[in-house]
Design a protein that fits this description.
It is a single chain. The protein has 101 residues and is mostly helical. It has a domain of 62 residues. The chain is 87% helix and 0% strand. It has three helices and no strands. Helix 2 runs antiparallel to helix 3. The protein is elongated and about 100 Å long. One of its GO terms (biological process) is protein stabilization. It comes from Salmonella enterica I. It holds the Pfam family OmpH. Belongs to the Skp family. Keywords: Signal.
């Protein structure tokens, strides 16, 4: 009886491993290339759409950095306070635009 159960168990184990080896995948290359082309088109569209905004934010960032350097080298005075206010307003604008980006 034990031999029958052992033989049946081994037989089931061999059948399941043999079934797993029979699975074959078929790839439709035409469909695959079409989907890849669509995705690259979407990525190009998104890149073109956000390119202007990204360039504007980079320009604002470099402008703010140069103003901060000028501000650090300036002594106290009316020009410095005016530049500080300008830098603060530009920082707020930059933060709003970058959050929306």
């Amino acid at each position: 009886m034990k031999k029958w159960l052992l033989a049946a168990g081994l037989g089931l184990a061999m059948v399941t491993s043999a079934q797993a080896a029979d699975k074959i995948a078929i790839v439709n290359m035409g469909n695959l290339f079409q989907q890849v082309a669509q995705k690259t088109g979407v990525s190009n569209t998104l890149e073109n759409e956000f390119k202007g905004r990204a360039a504007e934010l980079q320009k604002m960032e470099t402008d703010l950095q140069s103003k901060m350097q000028r501000l650090q080298s300036m002594k106290a005075g009316s020009d410095r306070t005016k530049l500080e206010k300008d830098v603060m307003s530009q920082r707020q604008t930059f933060a709003q635009k970058s959050a929306g980006f």
